Amino acid sequence: MALPYRWQWRVEKWRNAMRGFFGGDQQPRPKICPACGALVGISATRCHECGTSLRFSLVALSKSLGGTIGGETPVSTLILILNLLLFGVSLVATNQGNSGPNLFSGISGRVLYQLGARQSIAILSGEWWRLVMPMFLHGGLLHLGMNCLFFVDVGPQVERIYGSARYLFIYVLTGICSFIASTAWNLWIYHGLGVGIGASGALAGLIGVMLGMATGRGGSYAREIRAQMTRMVGYLVIMAILPIGIDNAAHFGGLASGFVLGKLFADREPMNAGEFKRAYALGWLAGLVVVASFAMMLLHFRDSLPGK
Q: 170, 209 in Cβ contact below 8 A?
């Protein structure tokens, strides 16, 4: 059965792009530099404008992978898919243990632990991936829905401003920082008992980035961003007051680390070869950390079963 036209186009685009990365294009034609967009000669191996390699580069590979996902904000789309996918897996596993399907049941703590939830004593024992996996896990449908609602409002904004590569780095780093703060608080107050999960620490990081970017600036755009992010910080404060089990330490860790990154990073996409290389190096580093965390979670999945 033939693929739909849209998927035929995507497959052909991906195939042509991959041939271009490794110099395998058999029909000589002018090339477009993946970094700066300049038109370069047929036989060129490096862009004359920015110096990017035309045979293989992280910039080219990253843009190709982003193109296969599609859309203006591919990293936001991918993060949302991972959140939904892992919620589906955790829900199925919980319902199997309960001997019956229930969409609105809370996710089992045992299942969350197996999938890599933040558990302070386990982290101190070397299970570092428990600082990464929790940002893709949720405890129930309401928890998932609230975080997704915040995410689709803030995430694409940050990705459009900073570019997909730096955005991925920001999301992963602030998420890790949020669970470092959560782990420290849990050890101090609860002596390592319990688990922690949720994307809200990384979401607080995105809010912090936007606040850091807009703080101290004039102009209507900066004022609008400050007003929007201040409202969201207000929501976090309200949730902190309510007795609903919110991980306030994770929110603070994400917000603070995001604010610092908002001050450090230029609030625009990379503009030259050096900036592109640094941005995509950070993006690939964050992506490899996430992939390695998923791999470690799967390798230790059975070891996390009760009694082992």
A: yes
